[in-house]
Amino acid sequence: MPSETGTPADLPADATDDATADVAADVTDDVTHDAPDDVLPPVTAPPVTPPSGTAPPAPAPVPVPGGYRAVFAVREFRAVFAAHLLSLLGVVVSELALTVLVYDLTDSPLLSALTFALGLLPYLVGGTLLAGVADRYPARRVLVTSDLVCAGCVAVMVLPGTPVAGLLVLRCLVAAVSPVFTGTRTAALADILGEGDLYVLGRSLLRIVSQSALLAGFGVGGLLLAVVSPRGAITITVATFLCSAALLRLGTRDRPARLGAGRGGSLLRESLSGARLVLGHRRIRALLLLFWLPPAFVVAPEALAAPYADEIGVGSAALGLLMCAMPVGHIAAELYAGAALGPRIRSLIVLPFAAAGLLPLALYGLRPGAVLTAVALVLAGAASAYVIGLDQWFVDAVPDELRGRAMTLLTAGLMTLQGVGMALAGLAAEFFPVHQVVAGAGVLGTLCLLPLVAEVRRTAPAPGIRTEVRDGADQHMTSG
Questions:
Q1: Distance of CA 277 to the CA centre of its chain
Q2: Which tens digits make up the pLDDT trace of 137-161?
Q3: Quick one: which of 477, 473, 411, 452 has its CA closest to 280?
């Protein structure tokens, strides 16, 4: 593990200095009782007293970037964004290349498919048992070390003598580290961008990049595999992880751990204690489920895209259209919400979009053609933009000392339930027609979400009240 005690000379200034003026433009709207966590205090400049005997200077207009431009104005975020882009593209390419490599070595479709599954299953283990790392150690150290561990695992994959069993174990290790890295980075964004609208837009940008990487990464991976071997493509991932580590090490500040130096006790106990506190609090638990449940159902059409294309008799071009439709809808809707809507409106659409977002999948019950199916998928993807408002509610609800563990658990649960959703959709399709399975996922998911939406509404604190978590307590407490 590299030392994190030094501070480079060209370290970026505190992000709050860069972003104070940016926050002021977007936070003056009032928020209704149903969206209380989106309230932000107005930011005002301190008064300047002119020297005695002189007239006060006329205020000079200061251009303030708005929307996503304000986020990119923060130097630390630019480093985080570039590192995220590099590592994400590397992961997508390596997953595709590793799947091809395992199939070349074994001629086994089962082991090749298992390579993809192992990218999801260890999330639950890593996100639950290692979550304490995110709050126990400085964020920059955790992020850089995670990238270096992943680079080391991928470098061993490249060695010609590595057996298939070793490749699968290394794949599990990378997947177990991923929720810790993602949770730590998400919690660190609140330090870099503050807890207001800049944080929400920063999270949105990283999410949009993730969706875009799924579209671009497989295309890039396919082109690479056309000119280099699978091991050669995997080698590129080593470089992307190392570049990500360098960007995070040199481009972000070294902040202290959230739990303070010299924290004693078992890491495992600390991780499980954090999970107990997060899941034991009524408000935070409801918000977590609102993150988790819609994706668990909305993956059904993606998991069954190929069987559905075969069922309605369309070719590979239409299949590609169906696979791209939902990510395109999500990206377009979230970009619009982040650029054109203010914090208050984003907060107001959370519950309606979450409650109705799965209903377009019911159109599958009519067994429509490729065009109408693509429209339904675009609408379902667009409804996922509700998370841009939900991000603000969640960061407001979780106290700072628990934030790293909460974000890690959020990531682990999200990925795990998507994997479970895909598996259950495939199992159901063994007994029922594909179009009925997808339509059923839309209807069943909506029925599950309606009481959850009501619970989120019931637990919403009044304006000016912030949720805090106390050991053994499930309550709301005011904080000044």
A1: 21
A2: 899 999 999 999 999 998 998 888 8
A3: 473
